[in-house]
């Protein structure tokens, strides 16, 4: 079986989607997929034989995770298309032509160039602004997943970053880098398991930031007060995919945190790209559309959200 045949099966694609968010054992996959255990095990065996997933033993369980370099044949084939698309977005005239094609495909009559809308949520075009932070905020849909695990809520968000995991890892672990974009600024580097204290600003009281898992430059899990933040980095065309899993207690708070992370992750992407932008925390969030984002995340997550792309 080649890689393209492997992912032609929708169940195997769904397993890969689930493992991209977090590692799972067979029981958790069976529950999520609502399929018989022998069938799930059969698909896992196929994925393992192709090198798409890898198992590891945790206590008495065998858990599966996405391989560090999954399906290289598929990624190699898709890569040129991805680069061509990105190059096209850097050319405003091509972006307008693409938008016109979308309008025609929807049966709309395309307007003159000045009236054409580039399909970004909120009607924003990254080429229309020189503010790198505003561009990053506008470039991403309110795409997230919400799931209930063990009586708590897990908010999952992803970002494609144009930098390798080794470049991104210090941004997640080093206080001097975290203070440039994150509300979590610890009193030590989060590079080893053990206690830590974090503050959003120096004058605030510290909160528990104990590191629970540290697997550089791939996985970091730490507390944030009563919450748990799980970060993972996986290779992706042109850089890496960052996944955040934020575990919290109150379902009513997910929109608020989704909006906050939307802004913080936009700052992270801009900083990684070399832009001098300020951290967006506290009252400054309102200046960047936090309230609107909160309402949009609340609406998106009302039914658990949409599959992450």
Please outline what is shown here:
This protein is an alpha+beta fold and 309 residues long.
Please explain how this structure is put together.
- The chain is 39% helix and 22% strand.
- By secondary structure, the chain is α+β, with helices and mostly antiparallel strands.
- It has three domains: 3-66, Winged helix-like DNA-binding domain superfamily/Winged helix DNA-binding domain (Arc Repressor Mutant, subunit A), CATH 1.10.10.10; 72-119, no CATH class; 139-303, START domain (Alpha-D-Glucose-1,6-Bisphosphate, Chain A, domain 4).
- The protein has a six-stranded antiparallel β-sheet, covered by helices on one side.
- A hairpin with a 2-residue loop joins strand 10 (219-224) and strand 11 (227-236).
- Helix 7 (132-139) packs across helix 10 (254-272).
- The longest helix has 19 residues, at 254-272.
- The radius of gyration is 20 Å and the shape is globular.
CATH superfamily of the largest domain: START domain
Strand content: 15-25%
Largest sheet, if any? 6 strands, antiparallel
- H-E string: HHEHHEEHHHEEHHEEEEEEEHH
Tally of strands:
12
Count of helix runs: 11
Structural class, from secondary structure content? alpha+beta
Topology diagram in text:
Blueprint: H1 3-6, H2 10-21, E1 24-25, H3 26-33, H4 37-49, E2 53-58, E3 61-66, H5 72-89, H6 92-105, H7 132-139, E4 145-149, E5 152-161, H8 165-173, H9 175-178, E6 185-186, E7 197-199, E8 207-208, E9 211-215, E10 219-224, E11 227-236, E12 239-248, H10 254-272, H11 290-300
Antiparallel strand pairs: 1-3, 2-3, 4-5, 5-12, 6-7, 7-8, 9-10, 10-11, 11-12
Helix pairs in contact: 7-10, 10-11
């Amino acid at each position: 079986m080649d890689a393209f045949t492997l992912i032609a099966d929708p169940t195997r694609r769904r397993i890969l989607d689930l493992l991209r968010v977090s590692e799972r054992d067979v029981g958790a996959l069976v529950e999520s997929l609502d399929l018989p255990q022998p069938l799930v095990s059969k698909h896992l065996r196929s994925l393992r034989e192709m090198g798409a997933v890898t198992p590891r033993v945790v206590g008495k369980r065998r858990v599966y995770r996405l391989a560090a370099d999954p399906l290289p044949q598929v990624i190699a084939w898709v890569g040129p298309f991805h680069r061509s698309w990105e190059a096209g977005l850097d050319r405003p005239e091509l972006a307008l032509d693409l938008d016109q094609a979308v309008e025609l495909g929807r049966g709309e009559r395309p307007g003159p160039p000045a009236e054409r809308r580039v399909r970004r949520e909120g009607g924003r075009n990254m080429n229309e602004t020189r503010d790198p932070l505003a561009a990053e905020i506008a470039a991403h849909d309110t795409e997230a997943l919400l799931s209930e695990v063990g009586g708590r809520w897990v908010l999952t968000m992803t970002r494609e970053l144009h930098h390798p995991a080794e470049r991104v890892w210090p941004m997640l672990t080093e206080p001097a880098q975290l203070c440039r974009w994150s509300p979590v600024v610890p009193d030590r580097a989060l590079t080893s398991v053990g206690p830590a204290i974090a503050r959003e600003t120096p004058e605030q009281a510290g909160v528990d930031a104990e590191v629970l898992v540290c697997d550089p430059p791939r996985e970091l899990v730490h507390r944030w007060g009563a919450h748990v933040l799980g970060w993972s980095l996986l290779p992706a065309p042109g850089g890496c995919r960052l996944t955040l899993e934020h575990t919290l207690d109150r379902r009513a708070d997910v929109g608020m945190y989704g909006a906050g992370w939307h802004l913080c992750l936009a700052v992270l992407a801009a900083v990684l790209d070399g832009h001098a932008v300020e951290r967006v925390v506290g009252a400054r969030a309102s200046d960047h559309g936090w309230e609107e984002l909160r309402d949009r995340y609340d609406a998106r997550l009302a039914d658990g959200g949409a599959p992450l792309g």
